[in-house]
Amino acid sequence: MAIKTAIVVLNFRTPEMTIQCLDSLSKHITANEKVLVVDNFSNDGSIEKIQKEMNYPWVTVMALGSNRGYAAGNNAAIKEALAWPDPPKYVMILNPDTIALDGAIQKLVEFMDEHPDVGIAGSQLQDPDGSRQHSSFRFPSISTELDGGFRLGFLSKLISNRQIIRKFTDKPQRTDWVSGASFFIRTTVLKEIGLLDEQFFLYFEEVDFCYRANLAGWQCWLIPDSKVIHFVGASTQVKYVEVKPKRRPDYWFNSRRRYFQKNYGRPYGCLADSAWMLGFSVWRVRRVLQGKPDNDPPHMLWDFFRHSAFFN
Predict the structure, then answer these.
(1) Among the listed residues 68, 99, 70, the one whose alpha carbon sits nearest the alpha carbon of residue 227
(2) 36: region left, alpha or beta (phi > 0 left; psi from -120 to 50 alpha)
(3) Cβ pair 156, 144 in contact under 8 A
(4) Cross-strand pairs, 185
(5) Which of 231, 229, 185 minimizes the C-alpha distance to 24?
(6) Cβ-Cβ contacts under 8 Å for 275 (sequence gap 6 or more)
(7) Up-side HSE of residue 273: CA atoms within 13 Å toward CB?
(8) 53 or 8: which carries more pLDDT confidence?
(9) Whether residue 140 has pLDDT greater than 50
């Protein structure tokens, strides 16, 4: 039977989570689905652990000779799948820090089969207790950056129809982009606009991909009936749920800057950076005056400034 969906799981020093993810798939995977596990040069025994635990015939493990980032790691498996004699109709990128619930993949397949103008679809991500995580978003802009920096209620209400996070929904929702933790792509889109941009080491690569697909006329949708548990930030250094986050890594700032400069130009990137830094500076003063807790990553404003479009 021809493989209809190739599922890519990228491992980097998270073998236990990757095994847990594959175990969740084993409960409802079908004969026309195949999983490609890519080890992004973990160099920590991950491959041996995964191969020891995984005897599933539908799993293939690929080992890369270097770690060139999230986009490049996923692209390695996507290229492999596209080179099959009978390429899959769909490619799914599934983070290792996820558990795909029953029907998660099938709901995406069904929706895409019924809507040929949809190029990308995403699952409703949730916490282990069933609480929904934000999974549907608008493209970043100067107004979203200003809002993200200021964190002021009246401003958020003023631009509510342009906020980056979209409201929860129980019905399929057309959106700008969906989380890369469960990212379902029509193969035709990959052939038309290319793979993930490997200049993004980590973060913003799915935003960029959805933006390019949008320019090419492809729609992106969130499918709430496709449910995936996501252990937020478990496989990266950025945990948005921490009370006191760690210092944000350089590659986050670099990826953000690349997204704005690549898609809107450097002048726009400078304006977006200025909007965020202005808002964040006011917020830091207001936080002290109002006695609010400091939950921002250490050195956030300085790190943002030195990675901004003004100097890069």
Answers:
(1) 99
(2) beta
(3) no
(4) 91, 120
(5) 229
(6) 142, 143, 145, 146, 149
(7) 28
(8) 8
(9) yes
- Say which residue the tokens 């899959």 belong to: 88
pLDDT digits (tens, 9 = 90+) for 196-221: 999 999 999 999 999 999 999 999 99
What six digits make up the tokens of 186?
Answer: 């029509």
Q: What fold does the segment set 5-132+168-230 form as a domain? A: Spore Coat Polysaccharide Biosynthesis Protein SpsA; Chain A (3.90.550)
Identify the band that residue 153 occupies on the pLDDT scale cut at 50, 70 and 90.
confident
Please say whether the beta carbons of 136 and 222 come within 8 A.
yes
pLDDT above 60 (res 69): yes
pLDDT value at residue 231 = 95
Please answer whether residues 301 and 277 qualify as being in contact, where contact means their C-beta atoms are separated by less than 8 angstroms. Answer: yes
Cite the beta strand spans of the chain per DSSP E.
5-11, 33-39, 59-63, 90-94, 98-100, 118-126, 136-137, 173-175, 177-178, 182-186, 219-230
* Cα 23–Cα 232–Cα 121 angle in degrees, nearest 5: 75
